[in-house]
Amino acid sequence: MSAEPEQHLVLAVSTVIFSLRPHPDTGEFTLWLPLVRRIREPFKNRWALPGGPLDNTHDLSESAKRTMHETTRVQPRHLEQLYAFGDVDRSPQAPERVVSIVYWALVRQDEDLQVVDADNVEWHPVEEIPGPLAFDHDLIVRYAVDRLRAKVTYSPIAHAFLPDEFSLADLRRAYEAILNRALDPSNFRRQILSQGTVEDTGRRMTGTAHRPPKLYRSAPQSSRYALTIKENP
Amino acid sequence: MSAEPEQHLVLAVSTVIFSLRPHPDTGEFTLWLPLVRRIREPFKNRWALPGGPLDNTHDLSESAKRTMHETTRVQPRHLEQLYAFGDVDRSPQAPERVVSIVYWALVRQDEDLQVVDADNVEWHPVEEIPGPLAFDHDLIVRYAVDRLRAKVTYSPIAHAFLPDEFSLADLRRAYEAILNRALDPSNFRRQILSQGTVEDTGRRMTGTAHRPPKLYRSAPQSSRYALTIKENP
DNA sequence: ATGACTTCAGGTTGACCTGACCACAACTAG
DNA sequence: CTAGTTGTGGTCAGGTCAACCTGAAGTCAT
Fold this sequence. Notes:
disordered C terminus, NUDIX_hydrolase-like_dom_sf (chains A, B), WHD_NrtR (chains A, B), DNA-binding, homodimer, NUDIX domain-containing protein (chains A, B), NUDIX_hydrolase_dom (chains A, B), about 25% strand
């Protein structure tokens, strides 16, 4: 018996890991994420987000990185805290109360390819999640997707999915995959170039079946808020 | 001795409580927040954010409401989770590791007036926080202010500071206090009315020393994201 | 080689929004 | 009644956006 007054409390760290992959049916890029099959009760044999108990000697984000890498072998380039889920009834079958601090992560396409899936790990398109997940993880995934879709419109996070050098068409396809809708290539180009989040490498892609596109790289930082109400000097 | 393998872990819930009050010097409205003087080590006698350990029988937001009300007597209308702070070195002097799930809250002006400050609680303008706060609370306050300023530009949260009925000038002064800059009355009016977050009550304010302004109330919901990249049908 | 095809690059146009500014309305104070 | 103050509503010029259009520059089939 521990010294806790009531029910035992567990602090866990989980991560929603996003990656961009072609859909097997359509060939279009979509969001995928890895799920881990639970081997213990509660929710044994159900799919769940990768995660684990907080490592008491590391920061929250470090714990997220560690548990994520241990279970899925991925090392994302972009990691960001999403939300802390801690309702008392979020894991009714569990013997203890679990508070989960959830992160979301973006995996680069080129790193993806060398990933060998670990046991009990499967990647799925976000729109085709298999069955109800363990705990409230369905809710968490839904929330993460919504937030990613919102954030991509005012922040250059889509770059985190791409390799060091990419064409504007690559970037546009990443946006289209996240937002799940087509974007006008011409207008997309104008917008991206005007916001200064990419810089020209001077080189072009070769071996394409069409006019070779210019190669760009992510510009070093440009944190900005999207303000609609402007100042009055 | 408990069963924890390493250092003991404490999960706390804190709240940054914002209120709008005239600055004693200038008379202009600014953001204020309540601070609580610590009566125990670590950081004894330093100012800190209101909060306390997670109540194991309640949700996170309920715990935030409870600790907030117990210490400061306020019952805000708007409560929102800000961030979970859990770096291992954020409270070096403390005997245990503390992970804080921090909320921020907006207090209505009219409720403010009936607040009798409890012992060891003082309200301060956010730009004049007294001395270094306990733990990493200076960082947390800074983060909360930045996020409030960003959010007010794309979400109608400023309404939470106002009573049920208010003039557009009241709302504009709330925005000006949060953003800390003047806004053009005419353009502000056009923008607010066009976004449909307020509705006309049909009545006007009386007893003013000028043309009586119309009274508005907050419109029921209109959650919308500020999208800059539009669809391509 | 030549032409068909594809995709990138870049410009134009009209609708809409923003910030700056102006004029009037409608009350109180003296 | 007059001055002063602030809300209300409108105009105007400049910028931004989505939609559309044209040319550039490769590959591929014949």
